[in-house]
Amino acid sequence: xxxxxxxxxxxxxxxxxxxILNCDYTNSMFDxxxxxxxxxAEGPTFLISISSIKDKNExxxxxxxxxxxxxxxxxxxxPSQPGDSAVYFCAAIDPNFGNEKLxxxxxxxxTIIP
Amino acid sequence: AAGVIQSxxxxxxxxxxxxxxxxxxxxxxxxxxxxxxxxGQDPQFLISFxxxxxxxxxxxxxxxxxxxxxxxHSELNMSSLELGDSALYxxxxxxxxxxxxxxxxxxxxxxxTVV
Lengths: 114, 115
What we know:
The structure holds two protein chains of two kinds.
Chain A: E1 4-5, E2 10-14, E3 19-25, E4 32-38, E5 45-51, E6 56-59, E7 62-67, E8 72-77, E9 86-93, E10 102-104, E11 108-113
Parallel strand pairs in A: 2-11
Antiparallel strand pairs in A: 1-3, 3-8, 4-5, 4-9, 6-7, 7-8, 9-10, 9-11
Chain B: E1 5-7, E2 10-13, E3 19-24, E4 31-37, E5 44-50, E6 53-57, E7 64-68, E8 74-78, E9 87-94, E10 105-106, E11 110-114
Parallel strand pairs in B: 2-11
Antiparallel strand pairs in B: 1-3, 3-8, 4-5, 4-9, 5-6, 7-8, 9-10, 9-11
């Protein structure tokens, strides 16, 4: 039962354009969401997070939007740079299962085309 | 800045052997998590420790055990290894300030291959 879903396994975007990565979830008890970026042979690196009490969080080129009613969040990267090419994981926390367990999505491989 | 350190980076074991993976969290971090990522799959939560006590348990097989030591490093012990245990094992650490844990920082992972 995949509670966090990233339906696009891959995405290609031209350098300088906006990259939009999407994530859907089914567990309405999730109250904190995180995006991680992963390069090959490395561990996931934290990017940005958002609490369920917010609908937007911005950090430099990265913005995460949360639509609770649709159980959907998205990560926007503007402008996209070649170094952004990586696999992006969406993750969520259900406080009923403790504050330690991250539930990950399956990842989206982003390729930035120079 | 110091990151999460995992050792070894690569490990090859035969079926039915045992393996021990080590994780050294970021200094002052008191919470450690273990994740398993099989080929082409998303990371699956195995187990976590807070202040040397097991705090949460996920899909960790009974053949595996883990602990967190007084210096906060953690070890994942895997026995009776099976071919299906071949995966990337990630350790992450965070500081549990009493509020909800937010960002967990991951190590580079240990790639275990069981042959």
